[in-house]
Fold these 4 entries.
Entry 1:
Amino acid sequence: MPTRNDLYRLDLSNASFTKACGGPCSEGCVTLARIGDDAWALGDSKRPDVEPLRFSTEELSVAGIDPTRFGLAL
């Protein structure tokens, strides 16, 4: 599992963020991007100026976040 420092060293310039919404997302949504083999970036579409948080796959799972709900494969 990558360390927190490793995750924040990963470049996000080519990251492709997707939204997970049950509806039209008119209020904004959580966004998620795979940024490495075991690394994810979690953002907020209502606050695109705020740097996304970064998590390992295990950390996402513990938090109850399933990348497949975003259309992303594990």
Entry 2:
Amino acid sequence: MTKLAVIPVSILLIANAMLSSNSMAAIWTVNNSQDLQHQLTQAGSGDTIILNAGRYQGNFEISKALIIKGQNGAVIDAKGLGSAIKVSANDVIIEGLRIESWGDDLYERDAGILVMDHSSNIKIMHNNLQGDGFGIRADHSQQLSIGYNQIHGNPQLHVLDRGDGIHLNRVQQAMVDFNRIEHVRDGVYIESSKGSLVTNNHFYHQQYGIHYMYSEHDEAYGNHSENVSGGYAVMSSKFVYLHHNRAENATEYGVLLNITNGARIEFNVLRNVHNPQGQEALGNQGRAMFIYGALDNEIRGNEFALSDIGIAMAMGGEKNRIYENNFINNLTQVKYVGDELLQWSQQGRGNYWSSYMGWDHTQDGIGEQSYQPNDSMDKLFWRYPEAKFLMNSPVVSLLRWVESQMTIFTATGIKDDFPLMQPTQINQAVELTTSASELVYEH
């Protein structure tokens, strides 16, 4: 009899628990700022708050696990002060809102959405943000998913006075995908973080598309930076995998490797990097890639094309593996003013050089004659730019011709013993992911 009595009690407890759990997840609809403030305080964890069309003025804080959804026409207006939304809880979803007019105090971290310290499992999806400060900022948090948002900064501000589109500081395992970001400082800024994945985003009219600083074990692919100062900056970081991205119409560089090691830079297309104000004497020409004090990185399968300089390297950037890249019609293919002779090939495969004039008698796809992209006259003019007026003189032309006929290379500079006769084929995933991200914004 005792055993029979226990069974229905157990079933009753389970049923009560299920009913109790279901009863906790309620859906609330709000129509004005007062309703929203009230429900943010009164709603239970796991509840959903739906904002009907209208303007919700003020600063709002999400301090428990909630789902916040905006109907078409729902606008959060911070009236130019502070952050529009602060998130100080775990397991929060913010979706479908238009957020505008938050503050511009970068020191106070004013943002459209500010994720506070120690928050985790935050999803910010399909929102439209427009304001002066940070678009989305997170500090000391983890497991963020930021996708399909449009973030617009203020083009009237100087680029360095704007906030970043997405700013992640000490954030672990962030996923940033399919966002369109323009007129901000940096599109995605990642500092002292680990394990981020940034994919299929579009960046326009800003300083850098993606900017890594003191970060490690990050990956970015399928991103498109256009009309920017720099496409992708990897600074003081480790083990960053940057692949299948595109940067074009930049003024400073397509990719910067600055005091970084263990990075893999592969199959990126970096074109039309040109500084209209650049001067060779000042060293500020556009560079498809700039390597500065970066060691033990692999640079393979990239296209450096139609730029002032294909690759510029300085201050200890010698110890990198550079091969199977395409150098196509850059005004200067390589600029290296250093004291070492560097071999840019690996296991019998070098790079493709549009300026290479050698032959492939064995028909194995490798030129018979080694290639050196810069002669001694180039390096002389780099060191003494005031003598550049002599560059087109008959004497200099004769010296260049004589040197080109000799097989003895100078003791310093870049040398490719296995130049490729045909360009490396770059995976079309770059084109496909770019097209996919454009489709997101057609509506």
Entry 3:
Amino acid sequence: MHVGFVVGLDEVDRTRVAEVGGKGANLGELSRLDGVRVPPGFCVATTSADLPAAHMPMTSCPDLLAKEIAAS
């Protein structure tokens, strides 16, 4: 399943820990609890680490992430 590189905290819960890591999943869970204030945010999905360097030089990675953040 492709999830994109940027996932909003409002889309994350403990079922997506493999995609966003434990901290991201916990923040997503906390953001749903009444009385707990979590600033709006996002996670960079673990799928971004799977991209072969030959197909995506590191110099282009910040630009790609910036585009996904702006679109979310």
Entry 4:
Amino acid sequence: MTPEEVRAHAPQLLDLQHKAYAVEAELIGDDRIPPLHEAESDLLSSGLEWIASFDDDRQIAGAVGYAIDQDVVDLDRLMISPAHHRKGLGTALVLEVMSLAPITVVATGRDNTPARALYESLGFVHQSDFEPVPGLWVSRYRHA
């Protein structure tokens, strides 16, 4: 998406982000995930580039926000509408981002079993777990 498209679709992206991270919060039993609480201005100032997939009604079905630094793409956000879960959209978006640089890194909730299974099925290797705030555990993955 161009910066202009991101601005035009920001309300839709933010709604999708809140819905997607609400699912993750339920899975991991913790709602302190920063993107769950962002405002539109936060999303727009994140510095991320975006790829989005639209459904037949021109609504965003899924999106991925990422940043590239040299040969590493940081997959910062993967957001799939709950209505489009288990249809391969997450896999397609991750593969698209992986094609942008030789190395891809991502982090997800340690207890987010569906996300971890997705990344592992695509060859990502678990690197470490960390606790950004007490009790909230995140797993880092890398694909090279």
